[in-house]
């Protein structure tokens, strides 16, 4: 099934730019909206590209206004804002580092100031860096990966909680690597495992407030993080090991987030969905 894989390519800056990918990922929702999120406001980290962009567009199609955060990919962010507007919804974006708690507080405050409410938080932004051996993993990289992938989720959730009421939803992005591991993504895999535990623990803590907390654990998905993380020859093999023998597209993952954020998932909290191309993973 090599025809379903992607050509070799590379980018030299994390988390990567969607406009530089060839072919571009599929992010447009496959079906008409059904107003599942009508009147809601969603805040999405890493919403400029990849899975985050697909989630932003899908939630906009379902009726939500969107605030999203990105690091420094201004062209991707502008395109995402345009896509949200084409769905008839409003968008606001923020450039900055979610590893900075003050920035997270500012994002939430400005989102609530603009839209007067906050109903959905999607913690999605992440970074990953290959190392061939644990001895090559520097303290700086370890701290940086955890600051983005774990601290950032804590900071944004902490800032959002005072504004989330009964019926609100938090959806965290984890990864198949939290369950299966990854021999060259040691620190990244550890952060994704931490987010599974964070999701389960926070779900228990917020149950009495009527706030649901769930997660999505994607498998190999065609996003800018892939050419920004791996060598070209490895990019060309991305997804080949999945049972479906191909990488997934962001619009094949986004419906999981819409479902978990909507009333369709009203009896689900502390759970993880697995759009991963058919891999069977433990609970």
Automatic annotation (TrEMBL):
GO MF, any single term: oxidoreductase activity, acting on CH-OH group of donors
Cited SMART domains: PKS_KR
Sequence ranges of Basic and acidic residues compositional bias: 15-32
UniProt-listed InterPro entries: KR_dom, NAD(P)-bd_dom_sf, SDR_fam
UniProt region (Disordered), positions on chain: 1-32
Protein keywords: Oxidoreductase
Domain Ketoreductase: residue ranges: 40-225
Matching PANTHER family: NADPH-DEPENDENT ALDEHYDE REDUCTASE 1, CHLOROPLASTIC, NADPH-DEPENDENT ALDEHYDE REDUCTASE-LIKE PROTEIN, CHLOROPLASTIC-RELATED
Family assignment from sequence similarity: Belongs to the short-chain dehydrogenases/reductases (SDR) family.
Name recorded for this polypeptide: NAD(P)-dependent oxidoreductase
Record organism: Oceanibaculum pacificum
